C-alpha cells in the first residue's frame, strides 16, 4: 500500500513540475517511464491534466463562480483561452445561423450572445426593420455593471458581431447614466458639457511585435480576432469611447452637431499576409426607459498596407441625429479569405484617436 | 482555398467536445500555450474535414486521432522533444479517460471544490490559472519564496483532485435526477 502511494506521489510530483514548467529532461524521462509502466500511473496523470485543463478553461467561471454556467455551450473569457475559442466560436456561429437565420446575419460571429425572439415590445422598438438587432443583456458574461435592459443596434454594425464591444458599450452607458465618476477599466473625461468614458489607456500597450507607437510611448491594441471558419473571416472590435451628450445645449439656429474622427491603424507581421480592413464605427444612441437604441450610425473603413513601419490614417465625419443621448465610438479590424483562418499572432493597433464635436461653423470641442 | 459550410450536427458535436479535446491535448502536451495552439489547429482541421466525417462513426475517436497527429507534428516542429513525451507515451493514453460526460461532471465537481479552497490558496490558484502567471511572478506578487509557492500549488492540485473524487458521486447522482 505504501509503495503504491509512494509510486503515485512520485507521479503527482512529476506531473505538477511539468504543469508548472519547472521540469527537467530527467523529470520527463522518469515520468515517461512511470506512465509506460503502469495504467494506474496514466490514470492518475490524466486526472491531474484534465483538472488543470479545466482550471485553465473555466477559470473565469470557476474563479467568479457566481454566474450560472451556460448549459449547452460555455466559452472561456478572453484573454484566457481566446485563441482556442476562435474556431469554436465560429462553429457556434454556424449553430446559431442554423437555428435562427432570421436573427443573425450570414457569417457573423455572435459568441456569448443570446438573440431574443421578437416580442411585441421589441418588435415595436425595432420598427420591423429586419436589419435591426435587439440584444438583451443576458450574455452569460454580462456582469451587473453591464446589465442594462436592452441595447438595440443596427444589423450591419460590428457591435452586432462582438459581444465584448456591446458589453463595454452597455457598461459605459450605465456608468455615465449612474453619474459615477470612478470605475474600473477606463477614465472619465470632462470636456465642457460632454462627459466621456474613455477606455484608451486600458487598451494601451508599449511598442511590441515590431510596431512602434506613432507618437508617444503607447498605442491601442485591439483584442485577438474571433475567427468565423465557414465565413472565412476574422474580426476584432473594441468600444473605445462612450460620450454623454445629454447636457449639450443646442441653439435654435444650430445647423446640427457633427463628430469628426481621425485615427491611425497598423498591423504586426503574423502568419497571415493579407491586409486588414480597419474601421471606425460611431453609433448615436437614444436612451429611454431602460432601452438604449441606436438611431444612426456610420462605419468608415480603410485597408492597411503590409508595412509595420507605416501607419494609415482614417478620418470620417458623422452627423449626429437629434435625440442622441450617447455616442459610441468603436474600432474594428477585419480580415477575409483563407488568410483570416490563420492564428492571429501579428496584432492590430491604433494610435492618435482624435475626436472633435463640431458645434457650429466656427465652434468645435476636442474630446 | 474554400471550405464547404460545416454541417449542423458536426458543429454541435465539435462544440460539445471542446473541453475533452483540450484536456486530451493538455495530457499529451502539458504546456498551456502549446496546447491552446494545437487545439486551435485541430479545430481548423476538423472544420476543413467536416464533410469527410461519417455521421455514424465515433466522433470523439476521430477528433482525438487528428489531435494526436497535431500534437506529434507540434513536437517535431518545436524541436523540444527532450521536454515532451515520446510517441510511445502519447499513444499509451486511453481516450476513455476523456469521455465528454465524465469531463463535464468533473468540471461541476471542480467548481464546488474550488470554492472550498482556503483564501490564500485561492489567491495563488487565481494567479496561476486565471492570470497564467509563472511561479516567479506569483512569488513576487504574494511576497513568498518560490519553493513555498511551488509547494502550495502542489497542495492545491492534490486537494482539488481528492475533493473532486469525493464530490463526483454526488454530482453524478444529482445529474441523474
Topology:
The complex is a heterodimer of chains A (367) and B (177).
Chain A: H1 2-19, H2 25-37, H3 39-63, H4 82-99, H5 120-126, E1 132-136, E2 150-154, H6 163-177, E3 187-191, E4 194-198, E5 204-205, E6 219-221, E7 226-228, E8 233-244, E9 258-267, E10 277-288, E11 291-303, E12 312-319, E13 326-336, E14 348-360, E15 363-366
Helix pairs in contact in A: 1-2, 1-3, 2-3
Chain B: H1 8-28, H2 32-48, H3 59-78, H4 87-90, H5 100-115, H6 119-130, H7 135-142, H8 146-176
- What name goes with the CATH superfamily of the largest domain in chain B? RNA polymerase sigma factor, region 2, helix turn helix motif
CATH homologous superfamily (4th level) name of the largest domain in chain A: Galactose-binding domain-like
Overall outline of chain B: globular
What is the chains' assembly state? heterodimer
Largest sheet of chain B at a glance? none
CATH fold topology of the largest domain in chain B: Rna Polymerase Sigma Factor, Chain: A
Between the first and last Cα atoms of chain A, what is the distance in angstroms?
A: 72 Å
What value does the Rg of chain B take, in angstroms? 19 Å
Walk me through this protein's architecture.
The complex is a heterodimer of chains A (367) and B (177). With 367 residues, chain A is α+β, with helices and mostly antiparallel strands. Chain A contains six helices and 15 strands. In chain A, the strands form two sheets. In chain A, strands 1, 2, 3, 4, 7, 8, 10, 11 and 13 form a nine-stranded mixed beta sheet that branches. In chain A, strands 5, 6, 9, 12, 14 and 15 form a six-stranded antiparallel beta sheet that branches. In chain A, β7 and β8 (233-244) form a beta hairpin. Chain A starts with a helix and ends with a strand. In chain B, α2 packs across α3. Chain B has eight helices and no strands. Chain B folds into two domains: 8-96, RNA polymerase sigma factor, region 2, helix turn helix motif (Rna Polymerase Sigma Factor, Chain: A), CATH 1.10.1740.10; 100-176, Winged helix-like DNA-binding domain superfamily/Winged helix DNA-binding domain (Arc Repressor Mutant, subunit A, Orthogonal Bundle). Classes of the chains: A alpha+beta (367), B mainly alpha (177).
Amino acid at each position: 500500500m505504501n509503495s503504491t502511494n509512494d509510486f503515485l506521489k512520485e507521479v503527482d510530483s512529476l506531473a505538477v513540475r511539468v504543469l508548472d514548467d519547472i521540469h527537467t529532461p530527467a523529470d520527463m524521462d522518469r515520468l515517461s517511464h512511470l506512465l509506460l509502466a503502469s495504467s494506474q500511473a496514466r490514470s492518475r496523470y490524466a486526472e491531474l491534466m484534465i483538472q488543470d485543463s479545466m482550471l485553465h478553461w473555466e477559470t473565469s467561471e470557476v474563479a467568479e463562480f457566481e454566474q450560472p454556467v451556460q448549459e449547452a455551450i460555455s466559452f472561456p473569457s478572453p484573454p484566457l483561452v481566446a485563441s482556442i475559442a476562435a474556431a469554436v466560436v465560429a462553429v457556434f456561429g454556424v449553430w446559431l445561423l442554423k437555428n435562427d437565420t432570421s436573427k443573425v446575419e450570414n457569417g457573423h460571429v455572435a459568441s456569448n450572445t443570446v438573440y431574443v425572439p421578437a416580442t411585441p415590445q421589441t418588435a415595436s422598438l425595432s420598427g420591423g426593420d429586419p436589419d435591426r438587432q435587439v440584444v438583451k443583456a443576458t450574455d452569460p458574461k454580462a456582469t451587473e455593471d453591464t446589465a442594462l435592459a436592452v441595447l438595440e443596434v443596427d444589423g450591419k454594425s460590428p457591435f452586432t458581431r462582438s459581444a465584448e464591444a456591446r458589453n463595454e458599450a452597455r457598461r459605459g452607458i450605465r456608468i455615465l447614466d449612474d453619474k459615477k465618476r470612478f470605475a474600473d477599466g477606463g477614465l472619465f473625461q470632462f470636456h465642457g458639457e460632454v462627459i466621456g468614458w474613455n477606455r484608451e489607456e486600458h487598451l494601451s500597450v508599449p511598442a511590441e511585435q515590431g510596431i512602434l507607437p506613432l507618437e508617444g510611448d503607447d498605442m491601442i491594441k485591439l483584442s485577438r480576432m474571433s475567427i468565423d471558419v465557414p465565413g472565412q473571416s476574422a474580426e476584432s472590435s473594441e468600444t473605445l469611447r462612450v460620450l454623454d451628450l445629454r447636457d449639450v445645449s443646442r441653439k435654435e439656429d444650430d445647423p446640427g452637431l457633427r463628430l469628426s474622427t481621425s485615427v491611425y491603424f497598423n498591423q504586426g507581421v503574423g502568419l497571415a499576409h493579407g491586409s486588414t480592413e480597419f474601421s471606425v464605427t460611431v453609433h448615436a444612441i437614444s436612451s429611454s426607459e431602460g432601452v438604449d437604441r441606436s438611431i444612426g450610425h456610420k462605419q468608415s473603413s480603410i485597408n492597411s498596407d503590409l508595412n509595420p513601419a507605416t501607419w494609415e490614417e482614417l478620418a470620417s465625419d458623422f452627423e449626429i441625429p437629434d435625440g442622441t443621448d450617447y455616442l459610441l465610438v468603436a474600432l474594428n479590424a477585419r480580415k477575409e479569405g483563407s488568410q483570416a483562418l490563420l492564428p492571429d499572432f501579428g496584432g492590430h493597433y491604433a494610435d492618435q484617436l482624435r475626436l472633435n464635436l463640431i458645434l457650429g461653423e466656427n465652434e468645435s470641442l476636442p474630446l | 482555398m474554400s471550405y464547404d459550410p460545416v454541417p449542423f450536427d458536426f458543429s454541435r458535436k465539435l462544440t460539445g467536445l471542446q473541453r475533452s479535446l483540450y484536456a486530451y491535448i493538455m495530457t499529451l502536451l502539458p504546456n498551456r500555450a502549446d496546447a491552446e495552439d494545437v487545439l486551435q489547429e485541430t479545430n481548423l482541421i476538423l472544420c476543413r474535414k467536416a464533410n469527410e466525417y461519417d455521421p455514424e462513426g465515433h466522433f470523439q475517436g476521430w477528433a482525438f486521432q487528428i489531435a494526436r497527429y497535431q500534437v506529434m507534428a507540434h513536437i517535431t516542429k518545436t524541436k523540444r522533444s527532450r521536454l515532451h513525451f515520446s510517441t510511445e507515451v502519447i499513444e499509451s493514453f486511453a481516450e476513455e479517460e476523456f469521455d465528454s460526460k465524465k469531463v463535464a461532471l468533473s468540471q461541476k465537481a471542480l467548481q464546488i471544490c474550488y470554492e472550498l479552497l482556503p483564501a490564500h490558496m485561492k489567491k495563488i490558484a487565481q494567479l496561476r490559472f486565471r492570470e497564467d502567471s509563472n511561479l516567479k511572478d506569483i512569488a513576487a506578487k504574494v511576497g513568498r519564496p518560490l519553493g513555498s509557492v511551488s509547494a502550495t500549488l502542489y497542495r492545491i492540485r492534490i486537494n482539488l483532485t481528492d475533493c473532486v473524487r469525493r464530490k463526483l458521486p454526488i454530482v453524478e447522482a444529482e445529474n441523474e435526477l
